[in-house]
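ok trying this again, last paste got cut off
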Amino acid sequence: MAVQLDLIKKLREKSSASIGDCRNALEEAGQDIEKAVLILRRRGMELADKKQDRVSKEGRIEAYVHAGNKIGVLLEVNSETDFVARNSDFCQFAKDVAMQIAACNPAYIRREDVPAEITKEQADFDAFCKQSCLMEQAFIKNPSLSIKDLLADLITKIGENIVIRRYARYKIGE
C-alpha cells in the first residue's frame, strides 16, 4: 500500500524526521499518524542509546533568568562538534531545558544520579524520579513528552550525541 504524500508531510511537520523515515513509519503503522509518531520516537530512543558512548566535548552554556529576576539557571549542554552547538534546534533545546530547570527545580539530571540512601527512602521511586530527575520530568511546553524524549528527538534529528552535563539553579534567598 502506497503512503499518501499528505500523510508524510503531516508526520514530517510533527516529528522533523526524514521523508524516508516518515514513509517507513507510516507503512509500519498502517497509515495511522499517532502510531507512526510513537514508532519514530521509539526509533529515536534506540538511536540515542547507540550514540550515548560517543564523546561530547563541544557544546554551549545557556543562561536563563526568569521574569522578575528572582530565579536564574546556568546550563551546560554538550555535543560532539561545535557546528551542532551553533545549530538553532540545539540552541532552542538548551533554552527550553534551562527554562524547565527554572520552573521545576529538579534535584538530579538522571535517575542514576540519585544516591542509594535516597533511593531506599522512597516508597515509589518512579514517582520520585518524575518529580526530582530532569530527564524524567514532563516537558513544560508539551507535557506529553519527557525531557528524555525531547533529547532523543533532537539526537535523531541532528545525528550526534548530545548530553545535558550539569546545571546550577539560583533563587534569591536560597
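PB: full thing came through this time. The chain has two domains: 5-51, 58-171.
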